Amino acid sequence: MFYDYAKINVKAGDGGNGCVAFRREKYVPAGGPSGGDGGRGGDVIFAADRNLHTLIDFRYRKHYKGERGVHGRGKNQHGRHGENLVVRVPVGTVLRDLDGNFSVDLKRHGQQVVVARGGKGGRGNARFTTPQLQAPRFAERGDPGDELMLELELKLLADVGLIGFPNAGKSSLLSRISAARPKVANYPFTTLNPELGVVKIGDRSFVVADLPGLIAGAHTGSGLGHRFLRHVERTRVLVLVVDTAGTEGRDPIEDAKIILQELELYNPELGERLLVIAANKMDLPDAAGKFSLLQKEFPAFKIYPISAVTGSGVQELLYDLADTLERQKGEEEEETEPEEEVLITVDERSDQGFTISGENGLFLIRGKGIERLVNRLDMENDDALRYFQHMMVLIGIEDALRQKGINEGDTVRIGEFEFEWQ
């Protein structure tokens, strides 16, 4: 079964906690604090792999989690970093955060993206030694790793896409020009999933995709709708296969108009995609007369009279496609900019800055840096609380609260932590 869509949960590893420890050894007077730092949590990385062709693995596994960092220990022993989790997906997979924070398209083999960052490890008490605080009895907790819901959408990478109404002969044409064996039958929607085939012409070759049948209203989701149309976006050249003989009782000219309109409505860029028309079933009666009408109705397109059953005219179509793709490849190489970095990282918000909003004696403080500090510290610990008060002054929050007009006894809230202003 071909799976081209999935939703999964991704969780990076949490950072390890810092350690509270003191060096107590014989003949080592005043050993001092010796708590080590916690290790960083493992990232979750997605990598494009040309050997994969479907998202079926994500049907059975919905949760992916990086390894947690190891906690720090005494004698200044830092915890080990968690292992990164590398998740492999087919080339052509689009990753989207369901919250709308990012969207990444993995188009090349080996391309990677870090979608979830592991949490930083907490610092041990040895890190907080100062002349004023020579024996700190607190350490930091590790930061939680990023967690998000991720949407995976596979868009096939093919050079040529065969499009057309059901029963126009797309599957028959693919089986004629390649070793692919898609289902062929005399009823609509025999192809429910895209089929790929490799076509060889002399010393040249290209990939052809037989895409599920299109009907009127597909851009709104009718029929196979968007499941079909998203694969069309990847192809370099589109071949519109029409039933020239009208064996299903439809008008080939009207069929072609409907499909061209659906492409334009779904994505205006597809209206500018290079497209040729394959007038199929020319071996049947009445096809010749309708072929001349097609030529008059669509003078801007190249129209090839073919028969997928007998093979008539197919070679001419394939040679023209091979020449077209070769010209396109040469133009793309001239315009290609230097390749982007193989490893992509999703932008992180800056730790700097905070906002204060307050009314009726309640002041809310928001900011990634200050919220992370609160989450790391145990506010029941006197040393940790004094360190927090010191950081409030350094960051400038205390002055900002005074400018906002805070009064004795007002409540200040940072994340889930609340305290009364003194």
Helix content: 10-25%
If you consult CATH, what is the topology of the largest domain?
Rossmann fold
Instruction: Look at the structure and give the CATH class of the largest domain.
Output: Alpha Beta
Q: Distance N terminus to C terminus?
A: 65 Å
- The total domain count is 3
pLDDT averaged residue by residue: 82
Strand content: 15-25%
Number of helices: 9
Alpha-carbon Rg, integer: 31 Å
Structural class: alpha/beta
- Helix and strand string, N-terminal first? EEHEEEEEEEHEEHEHEHEHEEEHHHEE
| Overall geometry | elongated
Reported for the largest beta sheet, the result is: 6 strands, mixed
Low-confidence stretches: 185-191, 216-226, 336-341
Which strand order spans the largest sheet, edge to edge or round the barrel? Answer: 10-11-9-12-13-14
Please tally the β strands and state the result.
19
Task: Determine the CATH superfamily of the largest domain.
Answer: P-loop containing nucleotide triphosphate hydrolases
CATH architecture of the largest domain: 3-Layer(aba) Sandwich
